[in-house]
Write a structure and sequence with these properties.
seven-stranded antiparallel sheet; Alpha-D-Glucose-1,6-Bisphosphate, Chain A, domain 4; alpha+beta
Length: 161
């Protein structure tokens, strides 16, 4: 079963794609621009560049609760796109959804500019999951995507990395 697209947002950044790509591709930089992220630990591989199949542990804080995600990179198109599947998490997503994951895609948007698109995928789990998806999850995900994109834009345009 393939996860269904649940939401997508984009932002234009006043930096070329090649300047923004490292912020997206290098998990160790995620805590600079991912608002709820406290730390990232590369699990596999622990050395060398990340790529298809690499795993990371993301420690974060959502809604006043500390927890973590274990994510595997399911797509890696150098300079263009990364996607992750959340394999394990401590926030309770598994109660309301299956196959949660997301993708970040970057493309040129004119001289010295790029567009970053952040998409989130999952399948609601049962009747309760479907109801929660409509009532809570979709709005929270959108708020989180927009906050992450705004932070990414600020960090990239300020050159703070």
């Amino acid at each position: 079963m393939t996860a269904k697209l649940q939401g997508r947002d984009e932002i234009t950044i006043a930096q070329p794609a090649g300047r923004v790509w490292p912020l997206i591709a290098d998990s160790t930089l995620l805590s600079l621009w991912g608002p709820p992220v406290n730390a990232v630990e590369l699990i596999q591989p622990t050395a060398g560049p990340e790529g298809l199949g690499s795993r990371r542990r993301v420690d974060a804080r959502f809604g006043g609760k500390d927890g973590h995600f274990i994510e595997v990179r399911t797509e890696h198109v150098e300079g263009r796109r990364v996607a992750y599947l959340i394999e394990e998490e401590t926030f309770g997503l598994g109660r309301v959804m299956t196959q949660p994951g997301f993708a970040l895609e970057i493309e040129p948007a004119g001289p010295g500019r790029c567009r970053v698109t952040f998409s989130f995928f999952h399948n609601p789990k049962g009747l309760f999951g479907s109801a929660m998806n409509v009532l809570v999850v979709l709005r929270q995900q959108r708020r989180n995507r927009r906050a992450a994109l705004a932070s990414l834009k600020q960090v990239a345009e300020d050159g703070r990395y």
